[in-house]
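ok, trying the design again with the full structure, not the truncated one.
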């Protein structure tokens, strides 16, 4: 019976999202395969993390497509993006904490493509007068990533309801935490 690679990767993502220090033995057990089978397909943790990176990039690019960032106001594009990326937020939170993915010359070009599209969304919003111009599009992009990771961890820890994920992230990013006086 051939290995269901997608099942193994999604199981590994779910486990590593909850327990980033999980061993390859724990990943194999969670996936219902032997450690030897896991190692035949992923030579070690680094190979598994790189495969999860490819899955995360594919999930992000799919979310970007489904979010239709070029339709309507940029604020609505941000809300759609957060909603579309939510199912992969746990995996992305895990990957966000894997420093080896973002250091040196070996960085996957997929992250640059994603950054460029999200940054362009914020730049368009600034050009349209929707977003503050005193915060760079690159900073708004990084802030979104940080909020997505924090939201995923909060949902996993049971501190936040999954149904509140999109609202909390989009509204905090778009509105900021500063309370404004009612006019």
């Amino acid at each position: 019976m051939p290995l269901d690679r997608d099942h193994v990767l999604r199981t590994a993502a779910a486990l590593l999202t909850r327990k980033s220090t999980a061993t390859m033995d724990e990943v194999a057990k969670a996936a219902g395969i032997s450690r030897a089978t896991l190692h035949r397909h992923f030579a070690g943790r680094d190979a598994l993390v790189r495969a999860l990176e490819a899955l995360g990039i594919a999930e992000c690019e799919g979310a970007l497509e489904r979010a239709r960032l070029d339709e309507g106001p940029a604020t609505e594009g941000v809300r759609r993006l957060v909603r579309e990326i939510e199912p992969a937020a746990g995996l992305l939170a895990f990957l966000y904490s894997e420093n080896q993915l973002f250091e040196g010359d070996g960085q996957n070009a997929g992250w640059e493509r994603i950054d460029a599209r999200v940054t362009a969304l914020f730049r368009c919003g600034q050009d349209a007068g929707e977003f503050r111009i005193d915060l760079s599009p690159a900073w708004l992009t990084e802030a979104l990533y940080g909020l997505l990771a924090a939201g995923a961890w909060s949902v996993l820890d049971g501190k936040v309801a999954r149904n509140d994920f999109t609202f909390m992230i989009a509204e905090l990013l778009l509105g900021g935490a500063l309370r404004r006086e009612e006019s």
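Keeping the full-length input from now on. The chain has a mean pLDDT of 91.
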